[in-house]
């Protein structure tokens, strides 16, 4: 991926993530080393309302050529909304590579009995998301199957 001379907005989960500043700073440094001008929303001051942060990040996004999405974003309402805006503006979207599988519990995991039921649960909870997209659905389906595979070996197909 050639980011030389491009303006890159970093999208990633912030709410509930204790080390978000380190994640964003690391990504910013990596992107700058590739010649990009980086817009890092993690440097915004604390103390604003969530809706204010989202309004600001959507404006920041307008200036970007590329959106760089950090791992573990699928449950972030803010990232989902930012991605919706990015798609409407026809921005290039790049997902950060990750070697790790995120097994963070999802709200419906205690009720999952099989990978098939996990896929059904996705449909059941679709209405909970205001900014739902195919990528988030695929990510959550993969996580559901991985969770079941790891935690319910007797239920494997």
Give the biggest beta sheet.
4 strands, parallel
Using only C-alpha atoms, the radius of gyration works out to 17 Å
Number of beta-strand segments: 4
Name of the CATH class of the largest domain = Alpha Beta
- The helix count comes to 5
Q: Overview of this structure, please?
A:
It is a single chain. 43% of the residues lie in helices and 10% in strands. The protein has 157 residues and is α/β, with parallel strands linked by helices. The protein folds into 2 domains: 7-95, Rossmann fold, CATH 3.40.50.450; 109-155, no CATH class. The chain has a 4-stranded parallel β-sheet with strand order 2-1-3-4, sandwiched between helices. Strand 3, helix 3 and strand 4 form a beta-alpha-beta unit. It is globular and about 45 Å long.
Supply the key terms.
5 helices, globular, Rossmann fold, alpha/beta, 157 residues
Produce the secondary structure layout.
Layout: E1 7-11, H1 20-33, E2 37-39, H2 50-62, E3 66-69, H3 77-88, E4 92-95, H4 115-125, H5 134-151
Parallel strand pairs: 1-2, 1-3, 3-4
Helix pairs in contact: 2-3, 4-5
Short account of what is shown:
A four-stranded parallel beta sheet has the order 2-1-3-4, with helices on both faces. Strand 3, helix 3 and strand 4 form a beta-alpha-beta unit. Helix 2 packs parallel to helix 3 and helix 4 runs antiparallel to helix 5.
